[in-house]
Specification:
CATH superfamily: Glycoside hydrolase/deacetylase
Radius of gyration: 17 Å
Number of strands: 8
Number of domains: 1
């Protein structure tokens, strides 16, 4: 059984970056996804270069911060800032999102990561917006183009022209908020019977930028505590669970 603990939001801020690095060096995290347009991007790139065992993917973003590609009519405000999640969902569900704009912005984010010297092994997205109608097709097109693995809700989409795109046997997003305890994580791991599975996580040290800009802030410290705890590391070893990255599945 292989488990990928993927730390979302690499590049969000220095505090987030340092928390992810701590979870990598002393805990379960072997994989992370980087946000190309956030203030901690350059710091995250330096940390990744210094820690090659931390495998990096791209955390494609349409809901937080400013775009990398510029100002768009349907996916940014007039200053290049992304709208809130509820508005992104509404536009996608109503068919009001220009998918060419999504593709352009996704490409800009991916190319920024590549230009920084990183070689992403998988794609996912902030707030899971890559699963929205229309946007998911753009997401899969680019995953195929760049030859990476993915996190995706509907595995049935990995067929036809996308049949060669790989994902994990299961995706676990329940280690979050009220379930951020050692007992809950042990229960989550015990209940999964997939050969390979991904556990989404958000370890961080809380700096002022994270505290002001994200509603999910303080709990990230507790995630870091659990993910680096001897109790969890021993439990994983006793269960024979192999910690890995997307590049190893």
């Amino acid at each position: 059984m292989k488990a990928i603990f993927n730390a979302d939001d690499f590049g969000y801020s220095k505090g987030v970056n340092l928390g992810i690095l701590e979870a990598h060096k002393h805990g379960t995290v072997h994989s992370t996804t980087i946000m190309a347009g956030m203030p901690g991007f350059d710091h995250a790139v330096r940390l990744a270069a210094e820690n090659p065992g931390l495998n990096v993917g791209v955390h494609l973003t349409l809901t937080t911060g400013k775009s990398v590609g510029g100002i768009y009519k349907t996916i940014t405000d007039s200053d290049g800032s992304f709208p809130r999640l509820a508005e992104v969902e509404r536009r996608a569900n109503m068919g009001e999102t220009d998918l060419a704009e999504v593709e352009s912005e996704y490409e800009a984010q991916i190319k920024k990561v590549l230009a920084a010297g990183l070689k992403p092994d998988h794609f996912d997205s902030h707030h899971h917006t890559h699963n929205l109608p229309g946007i998911v097709t753009v997401f899969l097109k680019l995953a195929k183009k760049y030859g990476v693995k993915v996190r995706i809700y509907d595995k049935g989409l990995l067929a036809g022209e996308y049949a060669d795109i790989k994902t994990t046997g299961a995706f676990i997003d329940t280690f979050f908020d009220e379930t951020v305890t050692s007992a809950d994580l042990r229960r989550i791991l015990s209940s999964c019977d997939a050969d390979t599975f991904e556990v989404m996580c958000h370890p961080a040290y809380v700096d002022s930028f994270l505290y002001r800009s994200s509603s999910y802030n303080i709990k990230r410290i507790f995630e870091l505590d659990v993910l680096t705890s001897p109790e969890i590391m021993n439990f994983i070893a006793e269960r024979g669970i192999e910690l890995c990255s997307f590049g190893e599945i």
